[in-house]
Design brief:
heterodimer, A: 286 residues, MetI-like fold, globular, B: 260 residues, mainly alpha, 12 helices
Chain lengths: 286, 260
């Protein structure tokens, strides 16, 4: 057909924009992590920032291992809780003819993280709405009596945020698998005398597990690399890796910037590794 | 059990909204009062008179419009190629487009910050829009290419055989048939840009201050009513979009993915 352009020509603009911006940003990130900061005339390659971060001796580095542990704990806990809840929600939704409930799930998915974290702060802080209701019921007298649920040192606020916020994303993945199945398996199992629980345990769950696991890995990567939520719902120490990285990247002491950059690159490597595993899993399932 | 799950589902959706609305129209509601006692519109009016809030909304809106338009223009041909053609290097194209969805915005923003400072894009509307484009473009391409995968090119062939010009075919057939997906893709790009905090902060460098930037600052230690009003204004566009695209969303829900 005469007006059919080459696919390469059609793809070129989008690919060029992405490649240039992503490539250049990674290039500068790597450059700065090696201590090459042109604005202050520093142009000798050094591995100091990597050494300082990994050995836990630098300005940012001294917190690195604690932050890594904190981020891993928060991301893993949130991912596991939200996956379990998402599985329940999806099994429930799959038996539902009512599209309105699916829409509500979508609405929750579209609710911005920033607004959701803000709402959690207003509800759960020590002088927040729940504390006021507790006081009205006579359970507590002063705000300090209310348990510290947000801005706490164990990351409970952050876990609370993601455990709920990631349910829709994962539930829709599971729901997609369940709805793509021929209804047959479930009916056959029922005809063979399987109980409701047995059908769930031996028919449904094995079917959705691979997709759920691949999705859960993506969620893990997202939580592990996100900034706003741990910055709002966390505290100064221990803080999540991205919070630590940005804090030192914006440090007036330009030398500390390299360390921030190293930490950001380590986060990126971990997230990319997790994403590759997730992709491989998805491919194997197809 | 069923009712418990459903109640929780709607509670999670409605509770934050209700709280924001209540807080926006009260004054002096502090611990230990379980409910607000004074209802007023002055807090809301004061926030709306604040030039920073309006300026932030306007800047965010302008950026989101630029981002949606750019995403659409760049994504449309790319999505068509990916959805309808088989060619060598297709996998690589997918991979390049997939990368920005997994590379953390933190790393992208920190690197772009250095690049944009050098080329003079830092602190400008265009610079922030380009940064947002990295995170919206993949989703626009994926949404449109899955629509193109279901698209039947024979309608175009038919029109061509009947003597239609390429322009007529594009406007009367391609665009018409793609309208629902185009609307969804544009709205998603708009919303992703509208709620973007980190990239705006890193590229805007204190000069471009959108509503999420103001909200983040307020939420880090501000008056609850101010926080609530900003949150309300912030989630207004997403709420409207969800309401108006309810049907489309049921089909494309997963395309929104996790970009908020």
């Amino acid at each position: 057909m005469k007006f059919r352009p080459s696919p390469y020509l059609s793809l070129a603009p989008a690919l060029i924009v992405i490649t240039i911006m992503l490539g250049a940003s990674l290039f500068y990130a790597v450059l700065e992590s090696f201590g090459i900061i042109r604005v202050i005339g520093q142009d000798t390659l050094s591995l100091d920032a990597y050494r300082d971060v990994l050995s836990g001796t630098g300005a940012a580095g001294s917190e690195f291992w604690v932050s890594l542990g904190f981020s891993l704990w928060v991301s893993a806990a949130s991912t596991i809780i939200s996956s379990a809840l998402a599985l329940m929600a999806a099994v429930w939704l799959s038996g539902q003819k009512n599209q309105v409930d699916t829409l509500a799930v979508n609405g929750h998915l579209a609710f911005p993280h920033l607004a959701w974290a803000t709402a959690l702060l207003l509800f759960f802080s020590q002088s927040g709405i729940l504390a006021r209701w507790a006081a009205a019921l006579g359970w507590i007298d002063v705000p300090a009596d209310f348990p510290i649920l947000v801005r706490d040192s164990f990351g409970i606020g952050i876990i609370l945020h993601y455990s709920i916020k990631e349910i829709p994303f994962l539930a829709l993945i599971v729901l997609g698998v369940l709805r793509a199945q021929p209804i047959g398996y479930d009916v056959v199992a029922e005809n063979l005398g399987a109980s409701r629980w047995q059908r769930l345990r031996y028919v449904m769950i094995p079917q959705v597990m691979p997709a759920l696991f691949a999705g859960a890995l993506l969620v893990f990567g997202l939580i592990f690399s996100s900034y706003e939520v741990p910055a709002l719902l966390g505290i100064g120490y221990p803080r999540a890796l991205p919070v630590l990285a940005l804090r030192f990247f914006l440090d007036p002491d330009l030398g500390a910037r390299s360390e921030g950059m190293v930490i950001s690159l380590i986060i990126t490597l971990i997230v990319l590794a997790v994403a590759v595993v997730s992709l491989k899993l998805e491919e194997r399932n197809k | 059990m069923k009712y418990v799950i459903r109640a929780l589902l709607y509670l999670v959706l409605v509770a934050p909204l209700a709280l924001f609305i209540v807080y926006s129209f009260t004054e002096g509601w502090f611990f230990p009062a379980p409910f607000p006692s004074e209802w007023t519109t002055t807090t809301f009016q004061r926030a709306m008179d604040d030039p920073r809030t309006l300026g932030g909304m306007w800047q965010g809106f302008v950026i989101a419009v630029i981002v949606s338009l750019l995403s659409l223009i760049l994504a449309f041909p790319a999505a068509r190629a990916l959805g309808l053609r088989q060619f060598r290097g297709r996998q690589i194209a997918w991979l390049v487009l997939f990368l920005p969805t997994v590379v953390p915005p933190l790393a992208i923003g920190m690197g772009l910050n250095i690049l944009f400072l050098r080329v003079g894009l830092a602190g400008t509307i265009m610079g922030v829009s380009l940064a947002h484009l990295i995170s919206t473009l993949p989703y626009t391409v994926f949404t449109l290419s899955s629509a193109f995968a279901r698209y039947d090119e024979n309608y175009e062939h038919q029109a061509l055989a009947l003597g239609a010009s390429p322009a007529q075919i594009f406007f009367n057939i391609t665009l018409r048939m793609m309208t629902p997906s185009l609307v969804v893709a544009t709205l998603f790009a708009f919303l992703v840009s509208w709620s973007q905090y980190l990239l705006t902060l890193l590229i805007g460098g204190g000069k471009i201050i959108t509503l999420p930037v103001l909200l983040f600052t307020a939420a880090s230690g501000g008056n609850p009513s101010t926080i609530a009003i900003k949150s309300l204004l912030f989630i207004l566009p997403p709420a409207l979009v969800i309401a108006f695209t309810a049907r489309e969303l049921n089909r494309h829900g997963n395309d929104i993915r996790e970009q908020y």
